[in-house]
Amino acid sequence: MKTRNSRNLYRRYKFIWCFLFSVLIVLMQTYPQIQGGTVYAQEEAPTGEGENEQTMMEVSEQNQIVVVIDPGHGGENLGGEFEDYTEKEMTMIVANAMREELEKYEGITVYMTRTGDQELSLEERAEYAKSVNADFLFCLHFNMSEHHTLFGAECWVSAFGENYSKGYSFASVEIDMLQELGLYSRGIKTRLNDRGTDYYGIIRQSVERDIPCVLIEHCHLDQENDQPFYDHNEKLLTFGKLDATAVAKYFQLSSEALGVDYSNYQNVYVNVPSNVVAPDRTEPDICMIEVVDQNMQSGEVRVQVSAADYDSGMLYYTYSYDNGQNFSELQRWPDKSADTFEFTMQVPPRIMPQIVVNGYNGYDLYTTSNMISLPSMDYKTVEEIAAELAEQAALESVSEAVQSEKEQSKVVHTRKIPEQEPAKPLSFTYFLTVCVVCALLVLAMTISMVLILGGRKRKRRGRRRKRKKRK
Ligand SMILES: [Zn+2]
Questions:
Q1: Average pLDDT, stretch 223-242?
Q2: pTM reported for the whole predicted model
Q3: Cβ–Cβ under 8 Å, residues 111 and 134
Q4: Of 153, 175, 242, 443, which has the fewest CB atoms closer than 10 Å, so is most exposed?
Q5: How far is the CA of 81 from the centre of ligand 1 (A)?
């Protein structure tokens, strides 16, 4: 009965069962697409088929941004090395932090060219970015300079068309934030090779694949001005977060997790250049100095500098008081929007100061100023005053030592004197004794002489008496 009933039930609702079964199959087929969502949609290269086109449309509708982070160097290619720091490791730390932070934003997919310590060619990196349909490639680096003199952060962008304007626009956000962190901005620049294409391989390879690329040189490893910005892992994580925030601002992203909304962030508008944006290959146009004040008592000389570079602006200056034989370390240009500023330099005493200044432009090319000779200043330096004071103190301590020695010898004398003083009366008594003894001797001799003479007289008298008796 039961089996017959169930068979009847199946026959009666045959169509309903078929409908339910087909709905289940459709659901099972679409489920992976729902779950994978937009995140992995772009990994499968769109081939122009209906379904994929629809997925891409969904992506663009949702404004899903795809970015690729490229931690510079890797494997055998160590990059810059300074003290205990190796660039390939630093870029990896920054990249991981950048990715972690960026993934807290909505509407963005983040990829990395490498997650381990492997060597990749620049072409492979750009090709990878192309394979994931990247909207932008961010290449992370740390810098070093030939003479270990340069300091600050800089961004390199393509010299061509839209890649220039997009690159410059993002780099403006990045550089502003690096400046807020306290780093000195070396600017946003282009560089060309001999063939007239972008000098940096990663930029050239990306641009060839129509992907805007910015090479971020966070700071210089080999200069003490920049060392405080990277000398701790925490600081590298700060760089990573900063880079991520710059990307979020540029793409006007929001993050519920972070509670930030950059949807109204105003990017710098950069015109798409019709010609190549060539790098600056000429020295600053002007560099002139004037001496404003010379303090003869302190050796301070106040100098006014007027310099300009109409291509890449002014970046650093150095000064010399020996007509350029020796220069100071590079100094920040105080205000890049001003052509004139004043600074004070310390000139040593007893030399004829011959002041010159080198003004550097954004591409580290310099122009030497006019030379100004000044009268020699005869003042005492802090070191000299300190040395004099030390000498004086030394002399005082020596004289004190001499005096105390004298005092000590006086003590010795006073000890001898009581020994000698009783000697004086002793010698006098001795003299007196000698005198008394002598006097006694003289007395004794006189007495004995008198006695002897007396005795002889008696004998003579006796003989005379005997002769008289005989007679
Ligand atoms: Zn590098």
A1: 95
A2: 0.70
A3: yes
A4: 443
A5: 10
For range 327-356, the mean pLDDT: 95
What would the pLDDT profile of 187-201 be if each residue is shown by its tens digit? Answer: 999 999 999 999 999
Q: Ligand 1 centre from 84 Cα, in Å?
A: 16
The mean pLDDT value for 419-428 works out to 50
Which run of H or E residues covers position 220? strand 213-220
For residues 320 and 368, the answer to whether their CB atoms sit within 8 Å is no
In this structure, which amino acid lies at residue 249? K
Q: Which residues contact 123 (CB under 8 A, 6 or more apart)?
A: 201, 205
- DSSP code string of 65-121: EEEEEEE--BTTB---EETTEEHHHHHHHHHHHHHHHHTTSTTEEEEES-SSS----
Tell the burial category of 102 from Cβ atoms under 10 Å away from its Cβ (0-12, 13-18, 19+): buried
Distance 87 CA to ligand 1 centre (A): 6
> Ligand 1 mean position to 88 CA, how many Å?
8
Task: Give the integer Cα–Cα distance in Å for 147 and 435.
Answer: 101
- Report how far residue 374's alpha carbon sits from residue 323's, in angstroms, rounded to the nearest whole number: 11
Euclidean distance between CA atoms 459 and 465, whole angstroms: 10
Strands (E), 273-392: 286-294, 300-308, 314-320, 331-332, 340-346, 354-361, 366-368, 372-373
Distance 79 CA to ligand 1 centre (A): 5
Ligand 1 centroid to Cα of residue 215, in Å, is 9
Separation of CA 176 and ligand 1 centre (Å): 21
pLDDT for position 61: 44
- Let me know the angle formed at the C-alpha of 31 by 29 and 36, rounded to the nearest 5 degrees: 120
Phi, psi angle pair for 209, to nearest 5°:
-100, 10
